[in-house]
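Long-time lurker, first post. I've been practising inverse folding by hand and with some scripts of my own, and I keep getting stuck on stretches where the structure tokens seem ambiguous. Below is the full token string for one chain I'm working on. Before anyone asks, I'm not after the true native sequence, just a reasonable design that respects the backbone. If someone could post their per-position residues I'd love to compare against what I wrote down in my notebook.
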């Protein structure tokens, strides 16, 4: 089943996107800061979510990892 039709896979993809964008912005800020609008602005917005809500994102990542490990 693809990630679009499976809710748990969709949440995993979104969490990975947020974490990856936050990491990329921490390593090379100019890469994401120049694209704040348009289609590539989605990655800048994900990095801002990862920076500002990092404790919540971390808890969601742990919960998602446990649910993946212990699900059927």
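-- Answer (accepted) --
I ran through it position by position. Result:
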């Amino acid at each position: 089943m693809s990630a679009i039709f499976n809710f748990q896979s969709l949440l995993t993809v979104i969490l990975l996107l947020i974490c990856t964008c936050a990491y990329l912005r921490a390593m090379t800020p100019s890469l994401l800061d120049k694209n704040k609008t348009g289609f590539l602005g989605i990655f800048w917005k994900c990095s801002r979510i990862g920076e500002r809500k990092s404790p919540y994102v971390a808890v969601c990542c742990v919960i998602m990892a446990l649910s993946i490990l212990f699900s059927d």
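A couple of notes from the structure itself: The mean pLDDT is 86. DSSP finds four helices and no strands in the chain. Happy to go over any region you disagree with.
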